[in-house]
Amino acid sequence: MHKKLLIPGPTEVSQEILREQSRYLIGHREKAFSDLYGEIKSKLTKFFELSDSYNPTVTTSSGTLWFDIVARSIVKEKALVCVNGAFSSRFAKTIQFCGKKVDVIEVDWGKAIKTSMVAEKLESSKYDTVVMCHNESSTGVRNPIYEVGDLIRSNYPDLLFAVDSVSSMAGDKIIPKTIGCDVVFASSQKCFALPPGLCISIVSDRAIERANNVSNRGSYTDLVKIFDFEKKNQTPFTPNISLLYALNKRMDLLIKETYARVYERHLEMAKCTRDWAKTHFELFPEPGFESVTLTCIKNTLEKNIKELIEKLALRGFMISNGYGMLKEKTFRIGHMGEWNTIEVKKVLDIIDDIWGL
Ligand SMILES: Cc1ncc(COP(=O)(O)O)c(C=O)c1O
Questions:
Q1: Which fold has domain 4-10+258-355?
Q2: Which of 135, 148, 147 is nearest to 85 (CA)?
Q3: What ligand 1 atom has the least distance to the C-alpha of 65?
Q4: Are 79 and 229 in contact (CB under 8 A)?
């Protein structure tokens, strides 16, 4: 039996989207491909309200490739990385693995990084790049990227700001120009509700200029090469054309729904899930910093989460246990992509039924 996915990615993909991938292939150096890719980029530009200084690009990769791209092509010498969960910790390590210096601001899982913490660090040392994860999927914490972006843009003109929006972009509100970030990226299997395999990114002109002055950018991680090919609406290497068909369709659906409504729908799902969670349990993130696309719930009733997941599977749905050390201590419900409040509520009712809440 198919289990509908309410995990923090991959999320449920509709038949309509799955069918798009069964189209005949085209050559990636053909005009037909450049037309397709150009169309996708125009739709990304429209949906994310990109001005001339922001450039969309789609890599055939999962989101993690962009940890490496930021490390190799953007960070010149030293980055400040905000760490409050598993993914931001991995981002910091990736930059170190690529041979660059890293300072971290680290807080406990469940806590958010505050703008004042970033301000303090920036005053005490010199960095060329700040890295922040918008939506820590391991803890359900949403970091204040708009305030941090404002701090950086108002005070540090040469500092670049890279944002991991892997599990929030196209669900939560991500307007790169308003954030003032230089790189922001998301995996296709999260709010874009596509199969995994693409990473949708938006890069500022400043970031491309920086990359031109960074050496040892690698090959698949070379931002300059990526944007050289963007000029002809191509990618440096063979892209996943089937997934690009699906992304093209997804952008039509998102544009039709409108940004405002997509965001509102995600806010409604988050509110419904949080209200349910607070009735029986507690939220894991500190108040005021809860994710809009997934809810991480503290298992205050000490329920058996593994067993719940197995029982829920028999009813056709899947949620997630806590991440890593938070296994059984928390559980996570992903409400991203094509889900809506009515459907999420049905699943919460089934959980009530299983647990007799
Ligand atoms: C916040 C965050 N960053 C990065 C990643 C890694 O993305 P991917 O698995 O697409 O490489 C994930 C995956 O769940 C994530 O949630």
A1: Aspartate Aminotransferase, domain 1 (3.90.1150)
A2: 135
A3: 11
A4: no
Residue nearest (by alpha carbon) to ligand 1 atom 16:
137
Q: How would you label 229-260 residue by residue, b for 16+ Cβ within 10 Å and e otherwise? A: ebeebbbeeebbbebbbbbebbbeebeeeebe
Q: Is 168 helix (H, G, I), strand (E, B) or coil?
A: coil
pTM higher than 0.90 for the full model? yes
Q: Report the C-alpha gap between 260 and 83 in whole angstroms.
A: 30
Q: Is the CB of 164 under 6 A from ligand 1?
A: yes
Q: Which fold has domain 15-257?
A: Aspartate Aminotransferase; domain 2 (3.40.640)
pLDDT in tens, 97-153: 999 999 999 999 999 999 999 999 999 999 999 999 999 999 999 999 999 999 999
Centroid of ligand 1 to alpha carbon of 267 (angstroms): 21
* CA gap 53, 73 in Å, rounded: 18
Ligand 1 midpoint to CA 69 (Å): 14
Atom of ligand 1 nearest to the CA of 134: 1
Question: Which of 164, 232, 159 minimizes the C-alpha distance to 199?
Answer: 164
* Rounded CA separation 315/335 (Å): 18
Domain boundaries, the chain: 4-10+258-355, 15-257
